[in-house]
């Protein structure tokens, strides 16, 4: 920011305010000697109240007043723009932090989801295997044979022996029937 100075010349008997802006153009505001003989920096020009500014502007021409007010407005707008930039940068940084945090959470949930899918696939495979086994058992007959020793319960084959033949393949049904016949004939022979 360029400062605003009050320049007084005793030889000529007048005072003036000058400021330099980017183009090195000097803004001169003439004042009579003894009238508000203080210099104003850009910071003072921006921070002073309107009432204080009006006191400093007394005795100046309309053009000079407009120039100073325009300078003040320009400086204030510059300050507002700077604070907006700072606010925007701060908000951007905060949003980037939130984005990083949310990305971590998304990654964590994606990993959990992947492990749950693996577990679900394993359970689904087990379920399908059990379903297949259940269908096979339901389609093929199972054989349960109880063998009882005749007479008083003594002898080598005493007690109850049960045997279950597992799932049978449809082409092997004759074999299962043969097993039943063999078991029956042995039991009849003992009796």
TrEMBL record:
It is found in: Nucleus. Residues 85-126 form a coiled coil. GO terms for biological process: regulation of epidermal cell differentiation. Residues 67-130 form the BZIP domain. GO terms for cellular component: nucleus. GO terms for molecular function: DNA-binding transcription factor activity, RNA polymerase II-specific; RNA polymerase II cis-regulatory region sequence-specific DNA binding. Keywords: Coiled coil, DNA-binding, Isopeptide bond, Nucleus, Repressor, Transcription, Transcription regulation, Ubl conjugation. Signal peptide: none annotated. The keyword Zinc does not apply. Pfam families: bZIP_Maf (PF03131). Its main location: nucleus. Belongs to the bZIP family. Maf subfamily. This is Transcription factor MafG.
